[in-house]
Amino acid sequence: MADFSGTPHGAGRKMAVAVSRFNEEVTQKLVDGALDALTRHRVALEDIDVIWVPGAWELGVTVRRLLSMDRYDAVVALGAVIRGETPHFDYVAGECARALQQAAAEFEVPVALGVLTCDTTEQALARAGGDHGNKGWDAAMAALEMVDLLDRLDAADSA
Fold first, then answer.
1. Cα(46)–Cα(14) distance, rounded to whole angstroms?
2. Tens digits of per-residue pLDDT, 113-129?
3. How far is it, in rounded angstroms, from Cα 12 to Cα 73?
4. Is 76 helix (H, G, I), strand (E, B) or coil?
5. Could you tell me which residues come within 8 angstroms of residue 72 by beta carbon, excluding any fewer than 6 positions away?
6. DSSP state, residue 7
7. Which DSSP state fits 70?
8. 24-54 pLDDT tens trace
9. Which domains does the chain have, with CATH numbers?
10. What is the pLDDT of residue 90?
């Protein structure tokens, strides 16, 4: 029996962080957390590109373009969709997640989902460096772990 898992080794990795400007009070904190996680795990700052998009809706097409460039080992997608008084929240949150998953599956490159879906700004801030940690950090860690895991699976397949 083989047992596989990845570890967050960042040295030599090229990473993209795609982030929504909408709710920037929250998303900037997510970016800060993601950059902290990546650099602490030895991704060189010059090997990280941060790409700002208008909102979470635009993350899907942006991530597809980034993956098509064949430049990045993984993409960390960050945003904050906060429920309002209309069903807009449901469409944006669900379609954003679906588009990111489809891009990852098509290109077989990790795309970490760091898009918060919260009822209030307070809940979002709690998850962007507050009482519930920083989901930007968590997404960056998941991206690094997945890159390493896929490398290990590739190595096992060619052995």
1. 9
2. 999 999 999 999 999 99
3. 10
4. strand
5. 14, 15, 16, 49, 66, 109
6. -
7. T
8. 999 999 999 999 999 999 999 999 999 999 9
9. 15-154 (3.40.50.960)
10. 86
The yes-or-no verdict on residue 8 having pLDDT over 80 is: yes
Of the CA atoms within 13 Å of residue 101, those in its CB half-sphere come to: 6
Question: What distances in angstroms separate CA 121 from CA 8, 109, 125, 142, 146, one per listed residue?
Answer: 30, 31, 6, 24, 30
Q: Which two tokens stand for residue 93?
A: 């949150």
CA distance 82 to 84: 6
Q: Is 88 a catalytic residue?
A: yes
- Residue 32 has what pLDDT? 98
- 46 neighbors 14 (Cβ within 8 angstroms): no
Of the listed 9, 41, 88, 132, which one is catalytic?
A: 88
